[in-house]
Write a structure and sequence with these properties.
- It is a single chain.
- The chain has helices spanning 8-24, 34-55, 58-87, 96-118, 124-150, 192-198, 205-212, 228-235, 243-246, 259-263, 266-273, 308-315, 319-322, 336-357, 398-405, 409-437, 466-470, 495-504, 530-534, and strands at residues 181-186, 216-217, 277-281, 295-297, 365-371, 443-447, 474-477, 516-517, 527-528.
- It starts with 7 loop residues before the first helix and ends in a 12-residue tail after the last helix.
- By secondary structure, it is of the alpha/beta class.
- It has two domains: 8-150, no CATH class; 180-227 and 248-310 and 340-518, Alkaline Phosphatase, subunit A, CATH 3.40.720.10.
- Strands 2-7-6-1-5-3-4 form a seven-stranded mixed beta sheet.
- Helix content is 46%, strand content 7%.
- It has 19 helices and nine strands.
Amino acid sequence: MKKPFIVHPLLFALFPTVFLYSRNMSEYPPAVMVIPAAVCLLLALMLWLVFGLIFRSIGKGALITSLFLLLFFSYGQLYDLLWYFFSVRPFTLREGANFVLKPLFALLFLGGGFLLLRTRHEPAGLTRWANAVTVILIAVPLTTMFFAFLAGGSRPTAADGIPVEQPAAEKRDTQAQLPDIYYIILDGFAREDVLADLYEYPDSRLYNYLRQRGFYIGGRSGSNYCQTTLSLSSSLNYKYLDADEDGYYANAKDTQALDRILLNSRVVRFLRERGYTTMAFATGSPATEMRDADVFLEPASKVGFLDEFQSGLINSTALPFLIPSTKPVPFWGERLSHLQAEARRELILRTADLLAEMPQRVSPKFVFAHLVAPHPPFIFGPNGEPRDPPIAWSLADGNWLIGRLNTRQDGYIMLYRDQLQFIEKIIVTAIESILAASSQPPIIVLQSDHGPGAYLDWNSSERTNMRERLSILNAYYLPHGGDSLLYDTITPVNTFRVILNRYFDQNLELLPDASYYSMWEKPFWFIPVSQAVQGDTIVPGSVLSD
């Protein structure tokens, strides 16, 4: 019988990248697959060559390569499942999942290799079976991608978005009168009273500086939503989310439906119509990367920038779990966790540096900067010293992170407070440079999308401290008396309503300030928690969802 053509090692190598992209294609352009796919193919070819020489057979070398790739790329997924099993048991083991998986995978790999060595003939039947399995495996995500592209399931373009209201007054005569606008989001930055009461940090350098420089600080401000995409979709469109208008389903398990209105928001479209240049920064989180901005700044990393897609692919493999973070990768000299953390550190530091240089660029401009900090992962010490995550790289927060850290709230609080102190330093420097170098007073909004997560439970509103999670930093530098329109409980949904009314002669009605909690798996099941956040009773907000 004719020997079968061998393709399964190459298809096994491509499958993880293609599958991951098919699950997240609304967040990434197709080009994101190129480098990971090329690396995986190169790995497969090298292993095939080595194992082929060891087994003195191309077919056997291909089979043991496929077995290795199957185990290697499934390790992270199985680790997560077993971690959950061990984490909810009273006999929780710190390395429980590794305790099971390491010997199991070693036994499977060595057993497979032993059986192949004992086989005298070329395993043509196994090769045909492996080819068929891999063709079916990779056909499933490719089919999903094909139909999604036909249905327009890629990331939104600049033509998408919800309509902008027609201006209530004529445009100003000259763009020279228009102020630069900076919208800076510090992800997870706590409100001042929360820092003092829950985080034992009563003397915040950032809050003290902002007061000295004339910023208005909402002392009882809360976020409208407890998740980043929800919060920024609302604030950048100065509206509450609505299922019918925004195209999401109440039972949806993710927030991808909001990409259209977040990345191409009313604020951006309104300002572009008035001659503003939009500038945005890479964040490492595609949901908040405005790549359609007039100027998109993606700081280069000397270690090679790893975005969330690449980090997610790495975390599905065995590497983060088998190589201790305290030891270097063989023949590399770098630690794997350090590689991911260092890329994120450089991104945050470079973004802060570029913010300080923004006054030198063309005006008028709208600058959007989302720094994923002091939100976990905790990669900075209080003086900026590098700190590697003790677990696989992840943006997890709340009970999901605390369980993985094998600690309680006090461990989270210590790491969060250390990172926050350094973020305060670089942001103070950036804002001081903006104020000093601007030719006319700019508008600066320094805000967090939600609070921290030491007392956050993604599965329960009863076990979540709403004051911690939804109380936020909300500071405004509004020149020429603009702060007269602000008030202590203002929430982000009214931020740009105030700005557009004051500086662009609009007549937008302020909305009731409301805060809503929702579970991670049910992001659109909104639970009103305004009183817990603000500490008093307020006028109920609009109906937000079914």
